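batch_manifest entry 22 of 60
target: DNA mismatch repair protein MutL
source organism: Microvirga ossetica
requested by: lab member K.T.
priority: normal
notes from requester: please return tokens only, no post-processing; we will run our own comparison against the previous entry in this batch. if the run fails, retry once and flag.
--- input ---
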Amino acid sequence: MHVRRLDPILVDRIAAGEVVERPAAAVKELVENAVDAGATSIEIAVEAGGRRLIRIVDDGRGMTPEDLELAVERHATSKLPDGDLFSINTLGFRGEALPSIGAVARLSIVTRTAEAETGSSIVVEAGVKGPVRPAPAPKGTRVEVTDLFAATPARLKFLKSDRSEAQAVAEIVKRLAIAHPTIRFTLSGEHITAFTYPPEERGEHGFLRRLSRVLGAEFHENAMSIGVEREGVRLTGFASLPTYHRGTGTSIHFVVNGRPVRDKLLLGAVRGAYADVMASDRHPVLAIMIDLDPRAVDVNVHPAKTEVRFRDPAFVRGFVVGALKEAITRYAFRASSTGGTRTLESLRPQGAMPLRPAYPHRTHAIRPTSAFANWQSPLDAQERSYASGLAERQGSLSDLAAPSADSRASLHDAEPETDEAPLGAARAQLHGTYIVAQTLDGIVIVDQHAAHERLVYERLKRERAASGIGRQLLLIPEVVDLDPVDADRVLAEASALESLGLVVEPFGHGALLVREVPSALASGRIKALVQDVADALAEWGQGASNPLEERLDAVLSRMSCHGSIRAGRRMRPEEMNALLREMEATPLSGQCNHGRPTYVELKLTDIERLFGRR
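--- output ---
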């Protein structure tokens, strides 16, 4: 069989397979064209998930009849005036989108410039271009794509349901709306909750308002501001507190020179920055803009232009990790507002409940519901309605079960200055696990184990960074039996573990002899400590590519659990207040080593609303 040149229409259809893999990809290309045209308002409408209709209307610069005729030709573009692929300042630059879409659908374009008296239109159907005709049109461009993939019916089999495709379109529009907050975006259509994002002012405040509209109103109160610049690279944006997170990484947004990207390097940087304060199966919510010299980043490395390649990837990754870690440390004492909000929601009455049991011959204890069962779930920011008062009921208080709280802290009056502290003065300990403290304008509930675990962890890290972790020699060395593979893994890292205060030696097949342990963990269970260390080493992998410091921190995180106050231990008032004061002085005390909140705060005004006082 001889080599032959393919038909131009077939070439366009092959190219369309790379550029237009689904309706959302077509929407992305067309909206990017509108952004490049200087539009201040972009309206998107879809039908049947974009398969039947995609309509994009913008108020940009528009095109002349001559430009319109060339725009649907392959590799024709106005965005590379000097032909320099290494200095790209626009979202589009290849000139492939319009001819690729026209090759697999019916493409109709109506456009007019501000100087023209009338507009121009053109139709491309299944790769066949029609003539340019005059048409009435406002300033800007209107693009309609109908019967997508009608020219390649086999592609339709690979599309998902209309609802799924519509949701993919909405996700693309949201990412572009985050990248360009000064532009109005409107989306409507079937299987979509229509929305409009009004244009925001330039600057940090406008960007945060746009993020609150896209990511949820509660993001505003749980966001950390980021604004740093070094060696010509500028990072600006907002990232969530470690205790405010989601189950997937879809709420992680990076914008490189105005282009939304999903880059593995940047996603890895986020994971590294939050590794010390968030569980591995949780993901932060953030939107960060990276602005740098266009020559320092190659955007022509992916057919859909969703990935980029930095000239100095190690510097960019380190810069992102450092900026996020600095913000986490700066906002370290704050816990997310959603903890207190969810607690209040669980306390609001769902209906009138009689104080006397429904069956007089039986006595029931009123048991508390779990307020923290679904603390990971994102909250609905809209305040729900609730009853303005409680119905008065007759009943004997003797029908209620006796409280199980230890209220010894309230027997001692707190010092006035203690009440003014951020975490207030300890008033009680509940169920041997939770400390209740009173502040000037509310109450704070602290998980004593989670809080002390973070305090021990930070103390061990400080000791390691200063003069080394203090060690305590065991009077009688303890023998710990492990799986032979785990024992070999621990022995292979013996020198690194010694720097963490844990000294081990081989003691036969699958056995270790523990001679010294960190002073802060001397009262803990040594066997469980060594087993956790082995698990941490297995998780990170021997000889892993992660920096040594990150691997050591992972081991310390496991070790700190064994030196912390356990749930169920009764604490004296002075011990509870000492824990609160240490939390106030310790970075990152708002969350434990696994990313769970260490405390929730309830404002007095919210508590008063629960009882109809406000």
